[in-house]
Design brief:
single chain, alpha/beta, Rossmann fold, five-stranded antiparallel β-sheet, 63% helix, Chromosome segregation protein SMC, ATP hydrolysis activity, Rad50/SbcC_AAA, coiled coil, P-loop_NTPase
């Protein structure tokens, strides 16, 4: 385990107007720092100050202050957090340790109301807590992008392979053409020699010869043009057949593609929007409840002395009796309410506070359910949108192919007309040449005609060779890309596999970490007949709309050993408060290690451990000491005595 936050250096914290603290400065050393004191000595307020300067908003401004401030010096770095009162709320500003405190709030700041710590007692969704910091929607979107990109590269690799397979055939064709060209040149040279010999022995009119040669030249030109038009026509017909075949494939794919009901997409969009609004409202409600619970707990601890003083002044009480008047020693006695000033039973206050805690737990559970449903609905919506995009892409391609077919059909018709015109022109010229040949020596005319035909064939062969060499060059360039495409595909596959396994890996690591540490802690703390506490990672079917889907859940198991040594499975309900607290803290530690919170946040904070006996607190703190760079733990004096004397003690805040 490593940390990047000045490991091994002292941390100096200056606080003003946070919680019940007016002003204080405390130095913490690497390792365990024990905040020793009775209730109402601002230990919790100091822990909240550390949370605030780390980036959390789970801290309150002193009741009579308009602004509070926390400054942290850690190594060569200085971090600040300023709390400013704005109407009914508090604004947070400054330069904290963390830009996003979610991980630390869940797994490093293990105060009494910490959600991960409370999840055991409240039977919360353990899997949701572990995976909440992971943006699964962004991961799934990225997976879709990578799959599409890999399919594109696969198509290009297939094209490169096809090019590689085509090259040897073309190279053979090139050799054959070169041989044919050489043979044709030799035949043409021989034919020219024959013409020269025949011309030497034949007296004929130069004018007639010139007319014939010009006619033959025009005939050769028109024949060449006819061949070019015929070749273009053949290519166009081949392309037209290919495009028609592609259109049939696209039409078949479209026919096989299930239609998407636009109303269903609209419904899912509205459902996503509704669930997001509901989640925001729940977040706001939970934050308000948490602040309300925190304030009342601090009032019970006597931390907001300025509020108590104000109520006492209004009632005309002596300032020295403020705490006694408002916070009686016995929870069954009467005290003064800090909201209306009337005398109330502390039993009623605690009962109301417990109702608020219960409501907060219900809202957290509801938020977890809403978050899970939101993820499922978003996944269903994304699937439908992908199908819509696929259909639109195919329909657009079908339209493009239709237009291309029309264009190629027009081209075929035009080239057919051009070929017919060229054929007619060739036939006319052939008649002209025949007329001219009647007045010449037939042997010489035959030689010239044969020579012209050889030249025409030679030109065609040279054109074919040029086209083959150009195609070989293009195919070779495409084939040469395969290595780069393979490397790119391998990178995409690696990233894709990492994304696809990231969620599974985090879930598995969280379960493994919890089970491993829980086994060790139970052995160290020796909880008698609790022989094993472990989490099982399982799949269960849940209903999502009109269909059932598989969902991963974390099931907590408690195994006890009876007096006769027989092991049996029990429930969380039968655990003692001490056992539940320990399990909750170990679950928080598992999340802390799996998400590597120590890499960014140097502090782990512990508070409200009174339900655990002193010796077990000491053993638990010793165990946590191995994993966190700085631990700050608030303890009563009698509990602090059990801890190692080498741990730093802070007795005044």
């Amino acid at each position: 385990m490593q940390t990047s936050r000045a490991e091994g250096t002292d941390a100096s914290i200056r606080v003003s107007n946070i919680g019940g603290i007016e002003s204080t400065e405390v130095d913490l050393t690497p390792g365990v720092n024990v905040l020793v004191g009775r209730n109402a000595t601002n230990r919790t307020s100091f822990l909240q100050s550390l949370m605030a300067v780390s980036g959390s908003q789970r801290a309150s401004l002193k009741g009579d202050a308009e602004e509070g401030r926390v400054e942290l010096e850690l190594g060569d770095e200085t971090f600040t957090r300023v709390l400013t009162r704005r109407g009914d709320g508090v604004d947070f500003s400054g330069d904290p340790v963390l830009d996003d405190p979610e991980l630390a709030d869940l797994f490093a700041f293990l105060l009494e109301d910490n959600e991960a710590r409370r999840a055991i007692a409240t039977k919360g969704d353990l899997r949701d807590l572990v995976m909440r910091p992971v943006d699964t929607e962004a991961i799934n979107d990225r997976i879709d992008e990578l799959v599409a990109e890999r399919e594109r590269i696969d198509d290009e690799i297939e094209s490169a392979d096809a090019a590689s397979r085509r090259i040897p055939e073309l190279e053979e064709r090139r050799v054959d053409l070169q041989d044919e060209i050489e043979a044709k040149r030799e035949a043409l040279e021989a034919k020219q020699d024959e013409i020269d010999e025949a011309d030497a022995g034949v007296e004929e009119s130069r004018e007639e010869k010139d007319d014939l040669e010009q006619a033959l030249d025009r005939l050769n030109d028109r024949r060449a043009e006819l061949e070019r038009v015929a070749s273009r026509l053949e290519n166009e017909r081949s392309s037209l057949a290919s495009v028609r075949e592609e259109r049939e494939d696209v039409e078949e794919t479209l026919a096989d593609l299930d239609a998407v009901d636009e109303d269903e997409v609209t419904f899912l969009e509205e459902r996503v929007s509704s669930l997001r609004d509901r989640k925001r409202r729940l977040d706001s409600t939970i934050t308000q409840l948490q602040s309300l619970i925190q304030f009342n707990e601090e009032m019970l601890d006597g931390e907001h002395t300025e509020v108590l003083q104000l109520l006492a002044d209004e009632e005309g009480a002596e300032s020295s009796a403020v705490t006694d008047a408002l916070l009686p020693e016995s929870e069954h006695s009467q005290g003064r309410c800090w909201t209306c000033g009337s005398e109330v039973s502390m039993d009623d206050v605690e009962e109301t506070l417990e109702k608020l805690r219960s409501l907060a737990r219900e809202k957290r559970t509801e938020r977890s359910d809403v978050t899970s449903e939101l993820e499922d609905v978003q996944a269903e919506r994304n699937e439908l949108e992908t199908r819509i995009e696929r259909r639109e892409s195919l329909e657009s391609r079908l339209e493009d192919l239709g237009e291309e077919i029309e264009e190629r059909e027009d081209a075929v018709e035009r080239l057919t007309d051009e070929r017919e015109e060229a054929q007619t022109a060739v036939e006319d010229l052939e008649e002209t040449v025949e007329d001219l040949e009647e007045g010449r020596h037939s042997a010489v005319l035959d030689l010239h005609r044969e020579a012209n035909e050889l030249q025409f064939e030679l030109n065609d062969l040279q054109d074919d060779l040029e086209r083959v060499e150009e195609e070989i060059t293009e195919l070779q360039a495409e084939a040469d890309r395969r290595e780069d495409l393979e490397a790119e595909r391998e990178e995409l596959t690696t990233e894709l596999e990492d994304l696809r396994t990231r969620i599974d890996r985090l879930e598995a690591e969280a379960v493994e970490s919890f089970n491993e540490h829980m086994e060790t802690v139970l052995d160290v703390l020796d909880y008698g007949n609790v022989s094993r506490v472990w989490i099982e990672r399982a799949e269960e079917q849940v209903r999502q709309g009109r269909r059932k889907v598989e969902k991963t859940v974390f099931r907590l198991h408690v195994v006890r050993t009876g007096a006769d040594g027989t092991a049996y499975e029990d429930t969380v309900d039968h655990l003692s408060e001490s056992e539940r607290e320990v399990i909750g803290l170990v679950f928080g530690l598992a999340g802390y290690l799996v998400h590597e919170v120590y890499e960014e946040c140097p502090f782990m904070l512990l508070d409200s451990l009174e339900a655990i006996d002193s010796d077990r607190i000491a053993a638990l703190v010793d165990y946590f000491h191995e994993y966190a760079p700085y631990i700050a733990v608030a303890l009563l004096p009698e509990d602090a005595q059990a801890l190692d004397d080498d741990y730093r003690r802070v007795t005044e805040i």
